[in-house]
Automatic annotation (TrEMBL):
Origin species: Nostoc flagelliforme FACHB-838
EC identifiers of the protein: 2.7.13.3
Keywords: Kinase, Phosphoprotein, Transferase, Two-component regulatory system
Name recorded for this polypeptide: histidine kinase
Group of enzyme by EC: transferase
Domain Response regulatory: residue ranges: 494-610
CDD domains: HATPase_EvgS-ArcB-TorS-like, HisKA, REC_hyHK_CKI1_RcsC-like
């Protein structure tokens, strides 16, 4: 009977043991490899996840990934049975189009005691140092990448652009462990895959940063839109309030005067009409300030810098406000250093800035004095407007130059203002290369200093040109001519008024006829040509927007007719922008006045161009 033994054959057990040991060593090496790579991947994922929730700087984020890779390689190799007593890993970076790279990140085994390792370049008789800030030629890096086993692995993105090189320097393994990873194959595979993980992490970081940048831009854009929308709403609310306040007075008192059966005394009637006129001027000042501010913020406001006679301009400014100061019982003072004679600036805008500051001083001063002091400080001229008024608290000074800002107490006390004067003044000063500053103490007055450079980088015209430009632009100013001239009849002078709007036509006819002129009114171009066959007007007052033609086209047509070529034409129009005046003059008109019409200025222009005596005046 045949018997079988259940014990293994002794020879077969002996033969199987080496194979089993080999398999165990291979598994151990494989587990070491996968464990190290998993740990590296986990660390990189953790960092990328944290980067999604923050906004890291691109350079710092890239450095963090590089350092993470090196630290994990160092930890994995040190914790293995590879017996690598001497090794170091590093990353070299280079700038595009350069022929060398610089080692920027290094991690090494503790046994090195901070001593650098040498990388052997087999095809060249030289050794490369692997240490921080060491320079390595790209040609050598490419050779290290191609040698067997490799000592360098490139970190390239999808397009092939190299972001850096992962390097390793390793001392030979001890003979007791050579069987673990033959020819360092396992270590080479670990380094290669670590390089791939590093490259993937860098690309993901790039996408994260790109997404964060787009998100930040979108977020900033949304914030800008929200801020713009808030400013628009604030602008509309403030403008609506500021416009409706004077309009309420104009409409209300007009309705009162027109009410059937209401017969106020002459004094009351004059009072109501004064309120209507004051409210109208306030409304015009608001519109001019809004237009100026909008043009400044759109970089469309141009300044015409010329040689300005400083003493003359300051006297003119104080002349314009002396009546208002006298009505409040305030003393006006002018202190002017004798060596200050001229300044290069836009005379019209300089006058506007000074008037804004002085009118503010007069509004907030109930007793005492208001003054203007002009002094030279280095390359700047300081125009200081001071007063003995209520003063301004530090809290209000912070917001003083913000558009539409008004001091709450002033509003409660009924002090009129648009809240735009100081904002416009500051921006005009900045356009001139200067500034506006304030010093104030509650109940102890205020000092506003307008500092302007003595010279501007512009071609300078004569002082006469500056005065002529200021006079021509005066029609668009909020302040009307305030000094009536003596009345002189001019009954022999004929005026042809071409005006589309009936109320404006009535206003100018009544005013000019009171001055003694003969006025013929037409409202269309066809009527104008018909009237010219019967009249020989000394001056034509021309509206721009007519029912059947553009007034500027009519002016050009008049200049083409021999018999009408020399008739002076003055345009009166609601076109009040700075460029509008230039457009009108370019069309061939002699002069320009903007609506609402400044009646004394209109009389002065008509007298000038009709050759009548200039001593005609307002009511």
């Amino acid at each position: 009977m045949q018997q079988y033994s259940s014990l293994p054959d002794q020879n077969s057990l002996i033969d199987a043991t080496p194979k089993l040991l080999t398999t165990i060593e291979q598994l151990r090496a494989h587990l070491w490899l996968e464990s190290g790579l998993n740990q590296l991947q986990s660390r990189l994922n953790d960092y990328l996840l944290s980067a999604c929730n923050t906004v890291p700087q691109p350079g710092a984020a890239q450095a963090e990934i590089f350092q993470t890779v090196l630290n994990e390689i160092n930890s994995t190799v040190n914790g293995s049975n590879l017996a690598l007593t001497n090794f170091a890993v590093g990353i070299a970076l280079f700038q595009p189009q350069e022929t060398f790279a610089t080692v920027c990140y290094v991690s090494h085994s503790p046994s090195l005691n901070s001593q650098p390792l040498l990388l052997e370049v087999l095809t060249a008789e030289k050794k490369l140092l692997l240490k921080l800030q060491e320079v390595i030629e790209l040609e050598d890096l490419e050779h290290l990448e191609n040698q067997q086993p490799p000592s360098a692995w490139r970190l390239a993105d999808d397009s092939g652009s190299i972001m850096g090189w992962l390097l390793i320097a390793v001392a030979p393994l001890s003979s007791a462990h050579e069987s673990l990873i033959e020819s360092q194959a396992q270590l080479t595979q670990f380094m290669s895959r670590s390089a791939n993980y590093c490259t993937t992490a860098l690309l993901q970081l790039k996408h994260i940063l790109s997404w964060q940048q787009r998100y930040q831009l979108l977020s900033n854009s949304n914030q800008d839109l929200e801020r713009t929308n808030q400013l628009k709403n604030q602008f509309l609310a403030n403008t609506s309030h500021e416009i409706r306040t004077p309009l309420s007075s104009i409409i209300g008192f007009t309705h009162l005067l027109l009410a059937p059966g209401f017969e106020p005394t002459k004094e009351r009637q004059q009072e109501y009409l004064s309120i209507i006129q004051s409210s109208g001027k306030h409304l015009l000042a608001l519109i001019n300030d809004i237009l100026d501010l909008s043009k400044i913020e759109a970089n469309q406001l141009e300044v015409q810098c010329e040689l300005v006679d400083v003493p003359l301009l300051c006297m003119n400014v104080l002349t314009l406000v002396k009546e208002k100061a006298a009505n409040k019982g305030l003393k006006l003072c002018l202190e002017l250093e004798p060596d200050i004679t001229t300044l290069v600036a836009d005379p019209l805008r300089l006058k506007q800035m000074l008037l804004n500051l002085i009118f503010n001083a007069l509004k907030f001063t109930s007793e005492g004095s208001v003054g203007l002091r002009v002094a030279c400080k280095g390359i700047f001229v300081h125009f200081t407007v001071w007063d003995t008024g209520t003063g301004i608290s530090p809290e209000n000074q912070v917001q003083l130059f913000q558009p539409y800002f008004q001091i709450a107490k002033a509003v409660a006390d009924g002090i009129e203002g648009t809240g735009l004067g100081l904002a416009v003044t500051q921006k005009l000063a900045q356009i001139h290369g200067g500034s506006v500053t304030v010093e104030s103490e509650v109940n102890h007055g205020s000092r506003f200093t307008l500092a302007l450079p003595l010279k501007q980088e512009v071609e300078v015209g004569g002082a006469g040109e500056a005065e002529e430009a200021a006079e021509a632009e005066g029609a668009g100013e909020a302040e009307f001519s305030s000094f009536p001239l003596p009345f002189t009849p001019s009954s022999s002078v004929e005026i042809l008024l071409v005006e589309n709007d009936l109320p404006n036509a009535d206003l100018m006819q009544i005013y000019l006829r009171k001055l003694g002129y003969q006025v013929t009114w037409v409202k269309k171009a066809t009527e104008m040509w018909e009237a010219l066959t019967q009249l020989n007007p000394a001056v034509i007052l021309m509206d721009v927007y007519l029912a059947d033609e553009n007034g500027l086209n009519l002016v050009q047509q008049l200049r083409e007719h021999q018999q009408y070529r020399t008739i002076p034409v003055i345009v009166q129009t609601a076109m009040a922008m700075k460029s509008d005046r230039e457009t009108c003059l370019a069309a061939g008109v002699n002069d320009y006045i903007s609506k609402p019409i400044d009646l004394p200025l209109l009389a002065s222009l008509v007298a000038k161009y009709s050759k009548a005596p200039k001593s005609i005046g307002g009511e």
